[in-house]
Every structure is written in structure tokens, then in C-alpha cells.
Amino acid sequence: FEKIKPILGRNNLIHKKGFAKFIIDYAHTEKSFEKLLTDIHKSYSEDTNRFIVIFGCGGDRDKAKRIKMGRIASQFSDEIILTDDNPRNEKSLNIINAIMEGIPNSIKVHKILNRKNAIKKALKISSIDDIVVIAGKGNEETIDYGYKTIEHNDIKYLKYLLNES
Questions:
Q1: Which residues of the chain have pLDDT under 70?
Q2: pLDDT, position 148
Q3: pTM for this structure?
Q4: How far apart are CA 136 and CA 17, in angstroms?
Q5: For position 4, what pLDDT does the model report?
Q6: What is the pLDDT of residue 6?
Q7: What pLDDT, on a 0 to 100 scale, did the predictor assign at position 115?
């Protein structure tokens, strides 16, 4: 087991001394998202102050899951950052507003369309005893905006920010 390498984008723990623990995962379906958050909550709840979750939903896809994803995130989060996750040909804000329908008003939510800025926000608001889950993109290299594709990788970008700090 010691020789087994983790799969990039699957439950990757990134931690730098003095910062929150960050977990990055591809989870973007209701089932995978709920499983991820359940497992993280079970594993870290005793020594964690807050759970912060960053995620979004893809555009031009299953619109019914958006409200469900919001409900799932709110069950396991103290704070949520909603952001882009391949909005394709839909307006990002419309996707985020649909997710919001599943999140009760008691949960603090940040709407940050730019995924890089969402990750920066998590770094800024999190503390050493927090867990930040960045879900949906895993180790993907791009974000699809329909009319253009931009380069972005959650793991690489987070490591860049942590090394700049």
C-alpha cells in the first residue's frame, strides 16, 4: 500500500503548515458529491473548526441536480462558495442561482463566478483548523465557457497560491 500513488483529482489532500487543509476531488454528481462530503465529515469532524465547500454545476446538463447539489452541500458545510464548473453555453449566474434554491438561508454563501477568485477567497477566509473542499473539477486542465475554453487546474492553482503565501 505504501507504493500506491493517489489518483490526481480524487480526494487529494493538500496542506501547508499554517493553512487550512484542502481536499480536491472530481465529485460532480449528486452521489459522488454526497459520498465525498460524508467521508470527509466523518474523517475530520473531531478536529475541524469549519467545513468550507467550493463547487458549481456544469451548464447544458442535468438542471434538476443543481438544487440537490445545493442541499447536499448545505448538509455538510458551514460556508459555501459557488463558482463556475464548465458553464458552457449557460450564464454562470443562472446556474449558481439554481443551486442556491437548495441552500437554506442559514448557510453563508459566496457567489464568485471566477473559479480562481473562488479559490483565493477560500484561502483568505479559511483558518488553520478548517477543511476546504474544492469539488467538481479535480485535475481537469480547462473550464469550458462554450464560446471559449480557459486553462485552469484546481490542484496546480491552489499549490501556486500556497507557495505565494
A1: 1
A2: 96
A3: 0.96
A4: 25
A5: 80
A6: 82
A7: 98
Which among 73, 93, 157 has a CA at the least distance from the CA of 120? Answer: 157
Q: What is the grid cell recorded at 29?
A: 454528481
Q: Identify which of 4, 24, 5 has the alpha carbon closest to the alpha carbon of residue 131.
A: 24
Residues 20-50 pLDDT 10s: 999 999 999 999 999 999 999 999 999 899 9
Distances 58 to 69, 71, 88, 90 between C-alpha atoms, Å: 12, 17, 7, 9
* All cell numbers assigned to 15: 496542506
Cα 110 from Cα 161, distance rounded (Å): 19
Specify the long-range contacts of residues 138-144, CB closer than 8 Å, at least 24 apart: 138/8, 138/9, 138/10, 138/12, 138/24, 138/25, 138/26, 138/27, 139/8, 139/9, 139/12, 139/24, 139/26, 140/9, 140/26, 143/84, 143/85, 143/86, 143/115, 144/86, 144/87, 144/88
Strand extents, DSSP E, 48-141: 51-55, 79-82, 108-111, 131-135
Question: Which stretches does DSSP call E strand in 70-124?
Answer: 79-82, 108-111
